[in-house]
Amino acid sequence: MQKAQGQLDILNRIPAGKIFEKVGFGAVVHSDKNQLFISIGLGKIKLTDTDSSTTEEYYAISPQVPIYKEMEGKRAGDTFRFNGQVFTIREVF
Predict the structure, then answer these.
(1) From CA 59, how far away is CA 65, in angstroms rounded?
(2) Please, what's the largest Cα pairwise distance for the chain?
(3) Which of 10, 39, 48, 70 has CB atoms 3.0–4.6 Å from 80's, for a disulfide?
């Protein structure tokens, strides 16, 4: 229960309605290989649009993980390298 409350406290620190221009805590990052939500380490999240029945996969990651360290502060159009792969950031919001 304490761990869940701690994670909820972290999520509550994300500024509501903020539009991000660069990768940081609370940002959603679309790259050419995946979609990430910089928040807490929850792993894969599937979101389904009930109107169109389309599903998108996001990975909720913590700012403490190595891939975040490689992309921190980058903007749409920037690239970064992780595990021998080059990622291109398409969009940050």
Answers:
(1) 12
(2) 40
(3) 70
CA pair distance 60, 39, nearest whole angstrom: 6
pTM for the full predicted model: 0.89
Report how far apart the first and last C-alpha atoms of the chain are (Å, whole number): 31
**Domains of the chain by start residue, with CATH:** 2-92 (3.10.50)
What the block records as the tokens of 53 is: 């029945």
Q: How far apart are CA 87 and CA 85, in angstroms?
A: 6
Q: pLDDT digits over 26-59, tens only?
A: 999 999 999 999 999 999 999 998 888 899 999 9
